[in-house]
Amino acid sequence: xxxxxxxxxxxxxxxxxxxxxxxxxxxxxxxxxxxxxxxxxxxxxxxxxxxxxxxxxxxxxxxxxxxxxxxxxxxxxxxxxxxxxxxxxxxxxxxxxxxxxxxxxxxxxxxxxxxxxxxxxxxxxxxxxxxxxxxxxxxxxxxxxxxxxxxxxxxxxxxxxxxxxxxxxxxxxxxxxxxxxxxxxxxxxxxxxxxxxxxxxxxxxxxxxxxxxxxxxxxxxxxxxxxxxxxxxxxxxxxxxxxxxxxx
Length: 248
Hints:
- The protein is an alpha+beta fold.
- The protein has helices at 2-55, 113-123, 237-240, and strands at 57-61, 76-80, 93-97, 132-139, 144-147, 154-156, 159-161, 177-180, 185-189, 211-212, 216-225, 231-232.
- It folds into two domains: 1-55; 58-240, Umud Fragment, subunit A (Ribbon).
- It is built from three helices and twelve strands, in the order αβββαβββββββββα.
- Strands 1, 2, 3, 4, 9, 10, 11 and 12 form an eight-stranded antiparallel beta sheet that branches.
- 29% of the residues are buried.
């Protein structure tokens, strides 16, 4: 009897001990499947993000104060790649690739500590050519843009423009100019007129300082970083509502 009991007990123990590796493998299989599913989901999410930011929305960092007070150094903006070419209007804030026109801009955002670390993380979703500019569209094809009238105002197609977006204390321009924007190009200026190297500064270059519409990446529509400056970037109505050019 004792022998039977021992044999029976031994058999039960052997069976119990022997079953553990099989049970562990069975437990690991669902875990592996779950991890695999998570990785596939993550990969799909990354692919979608790349497609969205490459074809629909693109992120940029503002490197200088040329667009103050609308944009300040270190601001992150989202640019709609669907709004480009002929859809660009007067008053829009746009990003364009200056590789073939003005070359690379100077100036980089500064900062330190935790804020800089978080800011750098935001840059991970940014794209750009390294020669990207952000400016406001003042003249579209056919416009005559002049500065300044007898009251020191910018005029577009003969209409004086009040510019509340210009940096406080700045004149519309300390440089005089009178240009007609050719087909397929735009005239752009920074809101911080005394601190902006824009179309005025490139009048003597090929193209007369005007940017080909084909070089426009898109219209900036949202300032998303830092959190305290989140806000939309709407076209300036003072420019958008001006009449179009008269026939010549």
